[in-house]
Amino acid sequence: MHSNHLLLEEPIRMASILEPSKSSFFPAMTKIVGTLGPKSRSVEVISGCLKAGMSVARFDFSLGDADYHQETLENLKASIKTTKKLCAVMLDTAGPELQVVNKSEQPISLKADATVTLTPDEGQEASSDVFPINFGGLSKAVKKGDTIFIGQYLFTGSETTSVWLEVDEVKGDDVVCVVKNSATLTGSLFTLHASQIHIDLPTLSDKDKEVISTWGAQNKIDFLSLSFTRHAEDVREAREFLSKLGDLGQTQIFAKIESVEGLTHFDEILQEADGIILSRGNLGIDLPPEKVFLFQKAAVHKCNMAGKPAVVTRVVDSMTDNLRPTRAEATDVANAVLDGTDAILLGAETLRGLYPIETISTVGRICAEAEKVFNQDLYFKKTVKFVGEPMTHLESIASSAVRAAIKVKASVIICFTSSGRAARLIAKYRPTMPVLSVVIPRLKTNQLKWSFTGAFETQARQSLIVRGLFPMLADPRHPAESTNASNESVLKVALDHGKASGVVKSHDRVVICQKVGDASVVKIIELED
């Protein structure tokens, strides 16, 4: 199954490029996060997105209220039922986002070399002369010559609906700017980003806290995307806040890096967060364009070595309005996969794009092609070298399972796990075959009755953002500390699932990683007819 893996370092037969790609049950090892919004919130479209390969649904609270998102979530649940595709839920906070509110929603035309005043007086109407903003401290944060970007919310960069301003003077609370390019701004909400300027606002706003403690807690969200993470302390504060909300103690925090400040403190943030989202839209404003790729490669590598998911955004902006990506975008997606990215996050493309399903499908196909030429051997050696010796017990088992699977050309690795940690460690070594993570609940007793611990469904869904990891929920009647006989019956279910989905067939080899008593065991089995 996996002998046809090419490496980019080897000469590729040109004719092989023209051979049609074989479809498989898992469209790609790389995961796809889709943002649900106006163009992608019906049951019909969400079902299409799930079938096309979306495994995480992102709910962006910069737009829409709790009722709006609840309706979308109910449609997602209905779609999961009908398609039988598991999907995780990510809540994306608004954070210290600076916005221009255009109450009239009338288009605003700006001409190059004209001046426009940014004012904290939100009572004023937005016009070509005045932009009311939601922050009173901008005049204290900027100085003459600073750059400010204003664009449509989730701007793609291809529209003529974004404008660059240069600060000319500060008048009291107002900031007078010179318009650098002619543009027409449309819509009710514009994003304002001051390049390389510290904005003195909390990372978790009061509005964010309210949304998390109500909508988030009520729906037991799997991931919190922490917008504008600038320091490790931001993640610690968010985790402390979640821990007080009972049901959200298991929620994973993904730090969204979108400014030079976050980049500067990247290593400390990575230590605290469960994963990283590289928000290339805002980063592309803060960084010179020629530096963005460098940050992406360095950040993804650090995430890979830490065994934490790296998510890349803003890859196929042009598909917001077009059925096909540009050649540069298609290459960009492939390069993100070759860099080691776990997941691709689609924003405007699915939120307000005309082709949400086709976009997910196209990105999935590009990822699958790139995975075929991913140099796993080199990656494995680099990771082992980085981890060093002595390895921890679990790390040693995980790397051995991957090594064995590659040596015997296994079709799949099956990992029994209750916390999900063992399966994530196996995925860290980027095996060329899928990892089926069989999530088993733990049993605890208080002498009177037995009960399950650990949000085992949450842990299963949280693996939906990890490259190459595909979860399967075990029957709760087979808890983690059960006998070998019940483990065998769970294994049979996992293999039957693998056969039904076409991942394994007769005479295939399968590597199994499981706990037997206190010992962790890696074994290789060959399937009979």
UniProtKB/TrEMBL annotation:
Domain Pyruvate kinase barrel: residue ranges: 30-360
Keyword line: ATP-binding, Glycolysis, Kinase, Magnesium, Metal-binding, Nucleotide-binding, Pyruvate, Transferase
BP-aspect Gene Ontology terms: glycolytic process
Cofactor needs: K(+)
InterPro entries reported in the protein's UniProt record: Pyr_Knase, Pyrv/PenolPyrv_kinase-like_dom, Pyrv_kinase-like_dom_sf, Pyrv_Knase-like_insert_dom_sf, Pyrv_Knase_brl, Pyrv_Knase_C, Pyrv_Knase_C_sf, Pyrv_Knase_insert_dom_sf
Known catalytic reactions: pyruvate + ATP = phosphoenolpyruvate + ADP + H(+)
Annotated pathway: Carbohydrate degradation; glycolysis; pyruvate from D-glyceraldehyde 3-phosphate: step 5/5
Pfam families in UniProt: PK, PK_C
Enzyme Commission identifier(s): 2.7.1.40
GO CC term, one of those recorded: cytoplasm
A Gene Ontology molecular function term of the record: kinase activity
Record-annotated Pyruvate kinase C-terminal domain positions: 395-517
Transmembrane segments: none
NCBIfam families cross-referenced by the UniProt entry: pyruv_kin (TIGR01064)
Family listed: Belongs to the pyruvate kinase family.
Protein name: Pyruvate kinase
Native source organism of the sequence: Nicotiana tabacum
